[in-house]
């Protein structure tokens, strides 16, 4: 195991940083794609978003506040996520509580997005019923005209969430199916570390 191995570490953030950096060189497409699960009335719902920031301060992602995931997070906060890197046979799972990011943080991230994504945020009524595909194209054209010749501001209905990670599990796949697993769980200001059967 390397020094960055989660199976030797006593906290999860350093090993995750190392694995994530390696994924950017080994994973062929979208290494920051994370499947995020929320729940409402006991029924889970999962979808893929992009992990935009991570570390001891939390894991950040962004979305439309009218989306199903945002409504469920605002109502319950409980969240789970998983990143799977097939090329390296690795997986990282997290559990925690999600809260909205401050406007200033969301503004800064929104300003860093490409203009097409900014315009798309204004045009899309995420998770609502779309009567026909041309309606979305019309809304995009309207947003482009509205902000022609100026910076696109962040819409109030769009922003970010911070997952306060309470548990993080690392999984390293093995050909013999005797996979490596280690679970870190928050314990006050520190972490407990438990090796798990595959």
Provide a quick synopsis of the model.
Helix content is 28%, strand content 36%.
Explain the overall architecture.
The protein is elongated, with a radius of gyration of 19 Å. α4 packs across α5 (133-146). The chain has one domain: Pnp Oxidase, Chain A. By secondary structure, it is an alpha+beta fold. It has helices at 13-26, 68-76, 103-112, 115-123, 133-146, and strands at residues 33-40, 43-50, 59-64, 78-85, 90-100, 158-172, 180-187, 190-196. Helices cover 28% and strands 36% of the residues.
Q: Which helices and strands occur, and which strands form pairs?
A:
Blueprint: H1 13-26, E1 33-40, E2 43-50, E3 59-64, H2 68-76, E4 78-85, E5 90-100, H3 103-112, H4 115-123, H5 133-146, E6 158-172, E7 180-187, E8 190-196
Antiparallel strand pairs: 1-2, 1-4, 3-6, 4-5, 5-6, 6-7, 7-8
Helix pairs in contact: 4-5
Element pattern in H and E = HEEEHEEHHHEEE
Q: What's the Cα radius of gyration?
A: 19 Å
- How many helices? The count is 5
Question: So what's the overall shape?
Answer: elongated
Residue runs with pLDDT of under 50 for 5 or more positions: none
Helix content: 25-40%
- The secondary-structure class comes to alpha+beta
Kindly identify the CATH topology.
Answer: Pnp Oxidase, Chain A
What is the architecture at the second tier of CATH? Roll
Q: How many domain modules?
A: 1
| Biggest sheet overview | 8 strands, antiparallel
Strand content: 35-45%
Overall mean confidence score, pLDDT? 95
The total beta strand count reads 8
The end-to-end distance, rounded to whole angstroms, is: 17 Å
Tell me the CATH superfamily.
Electron Transport, Fmn-binding Protein, Chain A
CATH domain class: Mainly Beta
């Amino acid at each position: 195991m390397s020094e960055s191995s989660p199976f030797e570490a006593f906290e999860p953030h350093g090993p995750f940083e190392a694995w994530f950096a390696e994924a950017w060189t080994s994973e062929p497409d979208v290494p920051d794609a994370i499947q995020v699960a929320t729940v409402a009335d006991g029924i889970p719902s999962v979808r893929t978003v992009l992990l935009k920031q991570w570390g001891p301060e939390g894991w950040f992602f962004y979305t439309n506040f009218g989306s199903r995931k945002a409504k469920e997070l605002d109502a319950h906060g409980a969240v789970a996520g998983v990143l799977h890197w097939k090329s390296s046979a690795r997986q990282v799972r997290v559990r925690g509580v999600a809260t909205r990011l401050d406007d200033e943080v969301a503004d800064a991230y929104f300003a860093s997005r490409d203009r097409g994504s900014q315009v798309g945020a204004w045009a899309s009524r995420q998770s609502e019923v779309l009567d026909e595909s041309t309606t979305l194209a019309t809304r995009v054209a309207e947003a482009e005209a509205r902000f022609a010749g100026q910076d696109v501001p962040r819409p109030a209905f769009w922003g970010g969430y911070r997952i306060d990670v309470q548990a993080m599990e690392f999984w390293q796949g093995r050909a013999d199916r005797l996979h490596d697993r280690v679970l870190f769980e928050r314990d006050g200001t520190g972490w407990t570390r438990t090796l798990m059967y595959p």
